[in-house]
Specification:
Strand content of chain A: 25-35%
CATH superfamily of the largest domain in chain A: P-loop containing nucleotide triphosphate hydrolases
Distance between the termini of chain B: 32 Å
GO molecular function, one term (chain A): ATP hydrolysis activity
Radius of gyration of chain A: 24 Å
Oligomer: heterodimer
Largest sheet of chain A: 6 strands, mixed
Shape of chain A: elongated
Structural class of chain B: mainly alpha
Largest interface: A-B, 24 and 20 residues
CATH topology of chain B: MetI-like fold
CATH architecture of the largest domain in chain A: 3-Layer(aba) Sandwich
Number of domains of chain B: 1
Number of strands of chain A: 20
Protein name (chain A): ABC transporter ATP-binding protein
Keywords (chain A): ATP-binding, Cell membrane, Ion transport, Iron, Iron transport, Membrane, Molybdenum, Nucleotide-binding, Transport
Distance between the termini of chain A: 23 Å
Largest sheet of chain B: none
Helix content of chain A: 25-40%
GO cellular component, one term (chain A): membrane
Number of helices of chain A: 9
Order of helices and strands of chain B: HHHHHHHHHHHHH
Strand content of chain B: under 5%
Radius of gyration of chain B: 21 Å
CATH architecture of chain B: Orthogonal Bundle
Organism (chain A): Rugosimonospora africana
CATH topology of the largest domain in chain A: Rossmann fold
Number of strands of chain B: 0
Number of helices of chain B: 13
Helix content of chain B: over 70%
Number of domains of chain A: 2
Order of helices and strands of chain A: EEEHEEEHHHEHEHEEHHEEEEEEEEHEE
Chain lengths: ~350, ~260
């Protein structure tokens, strides 16, 4: 293990306590809603915030090492390129601080810029760069100190949707080529899925789930994760193929589970009817339309009921069923489309 | 266009007149015919040169001591910081004459420090610089501290993660980023030093060519040669305005780092 850390930060009415292990070459995403403590965790790893836990990097305990001697590279949100220095001087800043001579540091910085395809911008000031270019410069600046640990705080949040796709792919390439441990913070599930080998979900200062993107997507363990990956998620007690849900109601499932379980299914698995559908082995229950929202070529319908559920239907179905807020409808889900798994790991 | 309430407009215009009229009076009453004679007088030229030199030296001294002091107040947490901040601003509100007396008690021949280092500051040109710096430095400290507090600390943190020591961060990140604030503070400080009267005359006296700065020359001339006093005042005004305008166009007008 390259990074082995426990970050503990206490603030008035907030406590962050999270254990992290990241192998060399591994990219771990800290995923969580705003205020979950993601950035605080990153700052504690970098030494910018007092950590009451412990950070061990390559076997060295860093707790008493000041941030300027940790060799931890940080790509900050908004990138924080020094506005008064040219792009090449921004990248050369780290090597200069570590005692490299002016000319050698500039040469080194130019190599980094060439590697990121930004050599032609070496002498411009950061303010004339686009968001994507600024991000690449920030990454080059962080990598130029040959960090033993790379931290990225919302590396894509400052970009507009149009460039985001391309820059995400490019960032993935760069991270794949980085041999030390990487921790990135994001509130965007897609960013986490694309960029990370492993996802750690942080909510209210505590880790609620960790696993590969595939595991997290298939088996969310909290409402937040389920909503992020676009699944309906319920907790309940299973017996003989039927789960009594904590949120009310019951669901037949197609898995041999018993005891405390989660049941998850995508909104597209939910069908809506004006009248109770007859004669099929389905989970059917009554709900009331709470909201209708267009998402691309589908319409997302939110229902209250036992249990409450989110359904994705076609615009045609919305028109046919005259779906409006307050309208009663019937929801149906096939047992074979549900996914049930034990709540205890 | 929306009407401006008279209750605000009338006092505003009166205030403007109040500030501008005396300057107009100065221009109107200037004895233009005797300008060459008065300007050629060695005392006037000496006083002008001495004022410019001492105000500049006082500003340099204030920069060397005041910028680090402002940094300490803005960046380092230490017990009694609020007290120190209050102490620093005392010369701002202290009557300058009191400042001069206090300086005499410390740096005078029999003062706390003066008797110990054997150097005589009072009634020398160096004394003028000290008196001016004492009165003017708080302007610089307050301005620079304000700029430091307004600066985005995250840039300094970014520099730290790149391996910069505190000194490097200050030199290569903090100082360049608060540059406009430092310049503004230095201009304020210089202008205040240029006009310094009370502390200077108390601590350094009024010796032509050695400690007689422009304000002292103006005050003295007002009794012996009022025309000379008016002209010297005008020169002082022009020098101040010229420096303010020159610097504003160059640095201050650009308004901070984005």
């Amino acid at each position: 293990m390259s990074l082995r850390a426990r970050v503990v930060v206490e603030r008035p009415r907030f406590r962050l306590d999270a254990a992290l292990e990241v192998a060399d070459g591994e990219v771990v995403a800290l995923l969580g809603p705003n205020g979950a403590g993601k950035t605080t965790a990153l700052r504690a790893l970098a030494g910018l915030t007092q950590n009451r836990g412990s950070v061990v990097l390559d076997g060295e305990v860093l707790d008493r090492v000041p941030p300027e001697r940790r060799r931890v590279g940080v790509v900050f949100q908004d990138y924080l390129l020094f506005p008064h220095l040219s792009v090449v001087d921004n990248v050369a800043f780290g090597p200069r601080c570590r005692g490299t001579g002016r000319a050698a540091a500039r040469r080194e910085a130019m190599e980094w810029l060439e590697r990121t395809g930004l050599a032609e911008y070496a002498d411009v000031k950061p303010r004339s760069l686009s968001g994507g270019q600024a991000q690449r410069v920030a990454l080059a600046r962080a990598l130029a100190v040959h960090p033993r640990l790379l931290l990225l705080d919302e590396p894509l949040a400052a970009l507009d949707a149009g460039t985001r796709l391309e820059i995400r792919a490019r960032l993935r390439q760069h991270l794949a080529g980085f041999e030390a441990a990487t921790v990135l913070v994001t509130h965007d599930a897609l960013d986490a899925m694309v960029l990370a080998d492993r996802i750690v979900v942080l909510e209210r200062g505590a880790i609620v789930q960790e696993g590969t993107p595939a595991e997290i997507t298939r088996r969310p363990r909290t409402d937040y994760v389920a909503r992020l990956v676009g699944l309906n998620l319920y907790r309940g007690r299973a017996a003989d193929g039927v789960v009594e849900l904590a949120a009310g109601g019951r669901l037949s499932v197609d898995a041999p589970v018993t005891g405390e379980v989660f049941v998850a299914f995508p909104p597209s698995a939910v069908a809506l009817y004006a009248q109770r559908p007859e004669g099929s082995p389905r989970n059917v229950w009554r709900g009331t339309v709470m909201g209708v929202e267009r998402q691309g070529d589908r319409v997302r319908v939110e229902l209250s009921g036992a249990p409450p559920v989110v359904a994705d239907v076609t615009p045609a179905a919305v028109a046919e069923l005259e779906l409006l807020a307050g309208q009663p409808v019937w929801a149906a889900v096939k047992a074979t489309e549900t996914h049930a798994y034990p709540a205890q790991v | 266009m929306r009407r401006i309430p008279p209750a605000l407009l009338v006092p505003a215009v009166l205030g403007l007149l109040f500030l501008v009229l005396p300057l107009v009076g100065l221009l109107v009453r200037t004895p233009w015919t005797s300008v060459p004679r008065l300007l050629a007088a060695p005392d006037s030229l000496n006083a002008l040169r001495l004022s410019l030199v001492t105000a500049t030296l006082a500003t340099v001294l204030s920069l060397v001591l005041g910028v680090p002091l402002a940094w300490l107040l803005a960046r380092v947490r230490f017990p009694g910081r609020r007290l120190v901040r209050a102490l620093v601003t005392i010369p701002l509100v202290l009557p300058p004459v009191v400042g001069g007396v206090a300086l005499l008690l410390v740096f005078g021949r029999r003062g706390l420090v003066g008797s110990w280092w054997g150097l005589s500051l009072p009634f020398t040109t160096a004394g003028v610089v000290v008196a001016e710096a004492f009165v003017a430095m708080p302007f610089l400290v307050v301005a620079v501290e304000g700029a430091l507090l307004a600066a985005d600390l995250r840039y300094e943190e970014a520099a730290v993660t790149l391996g910069a020591s505190r000194w490097t961060v200050f030199r290569r990140i903090t100082l360049p980023m608060v540059g406009p604030g430092v310049v503004a503070g230095a201009v304020l400080c210089w202008a205040r030093a240029l006009g310094e009267f009370g502390a200077t005359i108390t601590f350094a006296g009024n010796f032509p060519g050695r400690t007689q700065t422009m304000p002292l020359a103006v005050y003295l001339a007002l009794e012996s040669d009022p025309d000379a006093a008016i002209l010297l005042s005008l020169v002082l005004l022009l020098v101040s305005v010229a420096v303010l305008v020159g610097l504003r166009g160059r640095w201050i007008g650009e308004g901070g780092m984005a």
